[in-house]
Write a structure and sequence with these properties.
β15 and β16 form a beta hairpin. Strands 10-18-11-12-15-16-17 form a seven-stranded mixed beta sheet, with helices on one face. α4 packs across α12. The protein folds into three domains: 60 residues; 259 residues, 3-Layer(bba) Sandwich (FAD/NAD(P)-binding domain); 251 residues, FAD/NAD(P)-binding domain (3-Layer(bba) Sandwich), CATH 3.50.50.60. It has 15 helices and 22 strands. About 14% of the residues have low confidence. By secondary structure, the chain is of the alpha/beta class.
Length: 635
């Protein structure tokens, strides 16, 4: 009891000291009214209450850590955790806290602890209030919207507190996970071998590779051939990942191509979840008249460009002689923005390709680093419009509490509210072909304000090709479909930022038999267990889209379900039971956009987890352990 109180008291003391230092500085600068502002005092009081609430949560739900800092004397089993990101560290901490030995395998170095959060830009932060991002009960956030450094710091603190340093094998790639044959097993528990088996036998495997791996580099005609060759040096992941409701998203499934090359796949340049991203800006773009390209090029420019040859700052040119040009300036992935200092952005034209969380964050990062109005033009090229919801914990929580995980007859009420309140003045950006409960939204307060003030130009369209000094975009009007022919415009660019998401991590180290046809990711038992073997758990590795967060209490719940199945043979589901559960959910959500498990809300996830107990009354005796984490500790 003393430790949480001590930590909270120390954190509150730091906030008060920071408040007093800032007050003294403001008074010294002659800003007396600012120093004595009641608003500053009110914000301090709110932060103290916020920290105190977290202290109560820690006291009630944090599992003890003192007995698991060394090797457990008599563990109930051994568990392999693949991946040392936020989910992997949290899962392993729960395992050892409940008397199960764990080994974490991480293919990268110690510097990669934290997964995607170790790679994103330093300006990246949570899109949602951190009260909805409590990936472990021991977490204590100082701010409502912590940034990358704070998040990695909390991951590291949990990793150390639960003795995971000695249990983590860095620079160790998992190449195979194979089942021990029945005639070679030494117990009635499942038995698995990792790689060559030098670490012994494991009773279960938790795969925490997430849904976003290496940065996804797209190829557009006119790009230099070597673009993306150094991608491995700049691996990162984005809001989503982690991501959240709102901090995450899915691996990008689409290639940006000329409109006539559209392959009919997902329309979104979606990003990965989990989490991690702030947001940025874009601006209303007036679309030119429709009509065949050759006719429009011959029309009087003064009808559409005020005689200047530009449209809202967009240079309009003919491109017949530019098709074989190669872009001669800088092309980077959004995960590399930290490598460009602010002074190098001054006066530069920046084109961001991608409208998801990392695209918004990229624009915001550029605008923040260029001070004093010294920036050039900033453009966002959006292949599809995304729903943008405010950073309001009440609104975000209510949206996540929709229990059906799909568009419902009254969902239009939320869309009407957001359109006329949050999108006031920029209704042109409201998605026309996607409901609020059909894809992971971007959570942002500043984005639409940037749209209103014109700090960044929002272009709805498809990048067609690069030229020597820019990019040609198929500019589409609102309501036009992907692949529709719009008007080709040329955006001058000194820097092109590819905010195009991340590749889906490979899980070929797992046997294909664990995921038969029709039961691959995300169509899994409780969306995270292999339907063929409950001892293979894939927390946050089957995620696609949701209004809910990947970095919250479900990590511990899923881990404890696995521990119960290891301890209680009678609680275990059969492959037939697990496939039936998937089939029932698919029947209930038939017709849902993206499939039954392509999108879910956090309330729906909670219903699944409660149903695990209620549909099998013999499991009810474990409900307080699974849902609250109470009981089962090292002796």
């Amino acid at each position: 009891m003393t430790l949480p109180i001590s930590i909270c008291a120390t954190t509150i003391a730091q906030d008060v000291a920071e408040y007093l230092r800032d007050s003294a500085r403001l008074i010294k600068e002659g800003r007396i009214f600012k120093a004595l502002s009641p608003l500053r005092t009110f914000e301090l009081a709110l932060n103290i209450v916020y920290i105190a609430i977290q202290g109560v949560i820690i006291m009630m739900f944090k599992p003890p850590s003192s007995k698991c800092r060394k090797t457990l004397a008599k563990p109930y089993g051994r568990i392999a955790v693949i991946g040392a990101g936020l989910t992997g560290v949290s899962s392993a901490a729960h395992c050892v806290a409940h008397n199960f030995e764990a080994v974490i395998y991480e293919e990268n170095s110690r510097d990669e602890l934290g997964g995607i959060w170790a790679h994103v830009n330093s300006t990246s932060g949570l899109q949602l209030n951190s009260m909805l991002y409590r990936f472990h009960p021991a977490v204590l956030w100082r701010k409502a919207f912590p940034q990358q450094k704070d998040i990695v710091g909390e991951i590291t603190r949990v990793w150390k507190e639960y003795g995971l340093e000695s249990r983590t094998k860095f620079n160790t790639e998992v190449k195979s996970v194979r089942r021990v044959p029945d005639d070679e097993k030494t117990s009635s528990q499942p038995e698995w071998i990792i790689n060559d088996g030098e670490d012994g036998v494991f009773n279960a495997v938790i795969v925490t590779v997430g849904t976003c791996g290496k940065p996804k580099w797209i190829k557009i005609e006119g790009m230099p051939e070597d673009v993306g060759n150094d991608a491995e040096e700049h691996e990162e992941r984005e809001d989503k990942c982690a991501a959240g409701p709102f901090s995450y998203a899915t691996a990008v499934k689409t290639e940006y191509e000329a409109p006539h090359q559209d392959d009919g796949k997902s329309e979104d340049d979606e990003e990965c979840a989990a989490g991690p991203f702030s947001y940025a800006a874009a601006v209303k773009h007036e679309h030119p008249l429709e009509g065949p390209t050759d006719q429009r090029d011959e029309e009087d420019d003064s009808n559409k460009t005020n005689g200047s040859g530009r449209l809202n700052g967009t240079k309009l040119t003919k491109h017949t002689n530019q098709r074989k040009e190669t872009f001669a300036q800088t092309i980077i992935h959004s995960s590399q923005l930290d490598t460009i200092p602010g002074w190098k952005l001054e006066g530069k034209n920046v084109v961001v390709i991608g409208s998801g969380a990392s695209g918004v964050e990229s624009v915001e990062t550029v605008l923040e680093r260029v001070e004093g109005g010294k920036g050039g033009n900033v453009w966002m090229v959006a292949r599809s419009d995304k729903w943008i919801i405010p950073r309001n914990i009440v609104i975000d929580t209510v949206l996540a509490c929709q229990p059906f995980g799909r568009e419902m007859p009254l969902s239009f009420l939320w869309e009407f509210f957001l359109t006329h309140w949050h999108y006031r003045g920029v209704k042109d950006l409201v998605p026309t072909n996607k409901g609020i409960f059909e894809g992971t939204p971007v959570v942002n307060d500043e984005f639409l304000e940037h749209v209103r003030t014109g700090r960044c130009v929002y272009v709805r369209g498809d990048p067609v090709r690069c030229t020597k000094n820019g990019v040609v975009v198929n500019d589409r009007k609102r309501g036009m479909k992907l692949g529709d022919r719009g008007r080709e415009i040329h955006l001058d660019a000194d820097i092109i930022v590819l905010a195009t998401g991340f590749e889906k991590p490979d899980i070929s180290f797992l046997d294909d038999g664990l995921f038969p046809d029709g039961y691959e990711r995300p169509d899994l038992y409780l969306q995270n267990f292999s339907t063929e073997d409950w001892s293979i758990l894939m927390t946050n590795s089957a995620y696609q889209n949701a209004i809910g967060t990947v970095g919250h209490f479900h990590i511990g719940i899923y881990t404890r379900i696995l521990l119960v199945l290891l301890m209680d043979e009678g609680a275990r589901p059969t492959p037939k039971d697990m496939r039936l559960w998937v089939d029932v959910v698919r029947f209930i959500k038939r017709g849902a956009s993206g499939g039954a498990f392509g999108f879910f809300t956090y309330a729906e996830l909670t219903i699944w987890l409660l149903g695990f107990h209620l549909l099998r009354p013999d499991r009810l005796r474990w409900i307080l352990f699974i849902m609250q984490g109470w009981g089962v500790h090292p002796k």
